[in-house]
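Lecture 7 notes: from sequence to structure.
We start with the chain below.
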Amino acid sequence: MLNITTFLDANMRRLSKDIFCCPETGKSYNSKEVLSIVSAIAEKLTEAGAKKGDRILIYLKNSPEYLFSYLAIWRIGAVAVPTNRVYTKFELEYMIENAQVSIIITDQEGAELFKKTPVAVYVPTDFEKMRTHPILPPALTMPEDLCHIQYTSGTTGKPKGAMLTHGNWLAALSNECDVMEYTEKDVYLGIYPMSHVGLSWGFSALYAGALYIMMERFDLENYLDLIEKNKVTALSGMPPVIHSLVNCPSGTEKRVETVREIISGGGTLHHEIWKTFHHRYNIPVVNAYGLSETIVIGTGTVIRPVDYETADKFQSVGHPVCFSEVKIVDENDPSVELKSGENGEIALRGPAVAKGYYGMPDETKKSFLEDGWFLTGDIGYLDKDERLCITDRKKDMIVMSGWKIYPTEVENVLFKHPDVQDVAVFGINHPHRGEISIAAVIWKNGIDKSKDLETFAKAHLSGYKVPRQIITVAELPRVNGWKLLRRELKEKYEAEFGEES
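Predicted structure tokens for the same chain:
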């Protein structure tokens, strides 16, 4: 028997301090209050007809309600289907149908959107009265029982719902606590969208009895204020956030002096940004690699603070976490394992790998192999120390006249130019070369240095890797402000540059 929410019962018995707070509402909750609120919501869901195995969609803004709803769904043995508030009605209808959702948890504004949807709607209210609600026993569930359908970001094709279990989540929380070395004295500041598996870092803080402070909306100045005010020790970040910290004014170091580690994931942390951040702040970056299908590092790899004596190249995502395995396979034949240093598709195997994609047997067969290996769709290699280095997404790789170009590799070089603030390299179709590469650049001080950057690229890259066009942009398209959407750049500029040689 395993119901992942039973860690709340254990914490309630041994901890009386606050374990969760939301600065925007000014509310804090101790272990017993969290479990009471979760129990109250779980009871309401049961009264609405929810039962073990039912899929329940969450459509809320980042909020305490979101976190409590997640846990309440798990408490009754149902299956959480988290969604992002930015999703359109069309996108939500696809997920409702694909996951066979029976209940939607939303707020009053969201309820208006689902007026004509033939699915029950529940709106949580008045948490203050729920703080003393009687504790509801957890449903009897097994490690292999489904508790979560996590939809991929949908950067290509229709979103796929990764089927995650109570056992998957136990592995994820255990591994994240191990990597972060959480104790009850830690203070974790979380900024990841609650619809994303990055929320697992917050759940793992709760699991360890640390204090989890959640930000409903990211704002850099508020982020720094919260770190300083709450003496944050463990910090969630992502490449754009770390990039912003690198560009903060002198004196910011003092504001983050209590932080002993910062998480990065969800996108490539470029070498120059990582190195500059480390030398300026002396805060180890926990550079993690995992996916929705593996609950981040439930099965994945990571650089830990103890690795820094030898991991001085600032480009690896480290070794596998506990019970996990990683290998590199041929992109066209996953039965062929590649040697150290050879680029290929990254495959992961371990306790948090999803059961497959919900309602998509063909897609499941392509990615989840019978021997337990999961084909990630990412390209990388293992270095001489058997550390994993990410090269790119398989679908982002550019093939120009037969030459393979990895955008991240090119970006890492372009980042070295002193006038480049941010850059994205992407491919567009070309009638003669198959594809050509384009670099979209945000310039420091707003001064265009395209010609100079082209010269720089030619001096530091093989000829075929040099972008055929350099364009100036004001911003780069990202999912939730962090995961780069090269596809959008491709679609926007294909017509303009596709015919040029």
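Points to note: The chain has a mean pLDDT of 91. Residues 31-47 form the longest helix (17 residues).
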